[in-house]
Specification:
The chain is of the alpha/beta class. The protein has 20 helices and 17 strands.
Length: 510
């Protein structure tokens, strides 16, 4: 935007130069503004000066007037160039900023006093006494203009509107599903039949009726259409360092709820899972080599607290000896890496994004995440997770057991080999037996089941086998009303659980 600086040139030579130098040198303002000064920007020509400067007023976006003691040279109508410039800017409806030098006007030229009064009837004037005060006042005014025109933001990123997004880009079914989870999880006050617009308003997810970045990330039909790098990249390496070829690599897209669930399933499908027997309990004991609560907490922290203005994405990398999670961003000024390990206040980077995640019990919003992970890792016999800042990213490292196994010591141990053999004999399908054991600890989608079976991707045979098992009543979909949903997972039915319980008993393979 072009700024026309208007004043009596001789009286304000120093101020005009200081303003132009500052605006051209400031890292923020020089991205948006250019200045016109008659004394430096006009070369010798045969055009009359008044014609040149009035043309520049017409071509400018902002008029900046400096009014002092002198009125300046007057034309045949008794008007100075400054007066003519203001009149032209007013006639054209230009944005006008007026700065008056000095606290009192007694010593000013009578016509200048009249001009100040006339300008004051239509504009807000600012007073200054020095070039430094003038620069500060102009800076504040220009920043306010940028904010009003929505060219910069001063509030949290997630609270600002998502450019080019409309309410139609939000999925009403996702909002309704959130309502049910929030009511059951945290006694959310709105009833489940609340219209989506009221839900968004209640959660402060609208900016002048437009969806905010948080709204798109939480409930968008295609969040990555507007926030490309909000995806999560997951990779599994058999060794200790990043190296090609990558045995397993997935890029997950969707809402923040989808991203957390998919990335968590990816990790849990790659690490060892111990499955016990009912010898000492009616419940089948299971244990991941890394506590699944630690995996979930690490991933949800990365997704919720990342810097969404960054061009980087969250990266989840599983190595032979560790799990590393990288998310773009840094710590708020009030926190340090050391403070994260002790009691500290919750300071969410994206407060409007964090609130719905809290209401659905994805986070606790108490600043206990790192301490909980440390406690759970210690209880599982693992070293404390490591945290560090690296090249503009927050990096969390969770170590895997030295043996790579989650098998605990004690009686009744069985990694499921005998049970799998019995189940395969009963079902006459090794694949069906593996699927049932894979989803026994928790529901899983086909994409998460496939790597557990040693498959690189979901095969046609896996599709067929799952369909047969659903038809046979051994497993069931978690979203039966949407059979083809990408969020679909499968769990054991009562009949499937009963079959496993029967086969676990002595002689259960008879």
């Amino acid at each position: 935007m072009r700024i026309f600086i208007s004043s009596v040139q001789k009286e304000f030579a120093a101020e005009r130069r200081a303003l132009a130098d500052y605006l051209s040198g400031d890292p923020l303002l020089r991205r948006f503004f250019d200045t016109f000064r008659f004394e430096s920007d006009v070369s010798a020509s045969d055009r009359r000066p008044d014609a040149i400067y009035l043309d520049e007023v017409r071509n400018c976006d902002l008029y900046l007037g400096l009014f002092g003691d002198d009125y300046g040279w007057e034309n045949k109508d008794g008007l100075s160039p400054t007066h003519l410039e203001l009149n032209e800017a007013t006639r054209l409806g230009k944005t006008r900023l007026i700065f008056v030098k000095g606290a009192a006007d007694d010593a000013k030229h009578p016509k200048m006093r009249a001009l100040i009064r006339d300008a004051g009837d239509h504009l807000v004037r600012r007073r200054f006494n020095s070039s430094e005060e003038l620069v500060a006042a102009v800076y504040a005014s220009l920043v306010r203009i940028l904010e009003e025109r929505e060219l910069i933001r001063l509030g949290p990123f997630d609270a600002t509107f998502c450019r080019n997004a409309a309410l139609d880009d939000l999925d009403q079914e996702k909002i309704t599903r959130f309502l049910g989870l929030a009511r059951r999880g945290r006694n959310f006050p709105l009833p489940e039949d609340t219209p989506p617009h009221e839900v968004l308003t209640h959660l402060n997810l609208l900016d002048k009726g437009r969806p905010t970045h948080a709204a798109i990330l939480l409930f968008g039909k295609q969040p990555q259409r507007f926030l490309i790098t909000s995806e999560v990249k997951c990779a599994h390496f058999h060794g200790y360092e990043v190296a090609k070829p990558i045995p397993s690599y997935q890029v997950y897209k969707g809402t923040v709820f989808d991203l957390v669930d998919q990335a968590k399933d990816f990790v849990l499908s790659k690490i060892d899972l111990w499955v016990g027997t009912r010898e000492h309990s009616t419940q089948v004991p299971t244990k991941y080599e890394i506590p699944q609560e630690v995996v979930a907490e690490a991933i949800v922290n990365a997704v919720v607290h990342r810097d969404y203005t960054s061009n980087a994405s969250v990266q989840v990398m599983l190595f032979k000896d560790r799990l590393e999670i990288w998310n773009p961003g840094s710590l708020p000024p009030t926190l340090t890496l050391e403070k994260l390990r002790g009691p500290h206040a919750s300071v969410p980077h994206n407060p409007l994004l964090a609130e719905p995640m809290y209401l659905t019990k994805y986070i606790e919003r108490m600043g206990t995440g790192i301490r909980d992970m440390i406690h759970r890792c210690s209880k599982a016999g693992l070293p404390e997770p490591e945290i560090r800042l690296d090249g503009g990213s927050f990096v969390l490292t969770v170590h895997r057991p030295a043996t790579g196994s989650a098998t605990p010591s004690g009686p009744g141990q069985d990694r499921g080999g005998q049970l799998e053999s019995r189940l395969e004999s009963r079902l006459e399908s090794a694949l069906a037996a593996k699927v049932m054991l894979a989803i026994r600890p928790q529901p899983l989608g086909k994409a998460a089941i496939a790597p557990i079976l040693g498959h690189k991707s979901v095969s046609g045979e896996l599709h067929k086998q799952i369909k047969r098992m659903v038809n046979g009543g051994l497993i069931e979909p978690t979203i039966p009303e949407k059979p083809s949903s990408r969020l679909q997972k499968y769990r054991l039915t009562a009949r499937g659980q009963a079959l496993l319980a029967e086969l676990e008993k002595p002689g259960g393979n008879a």
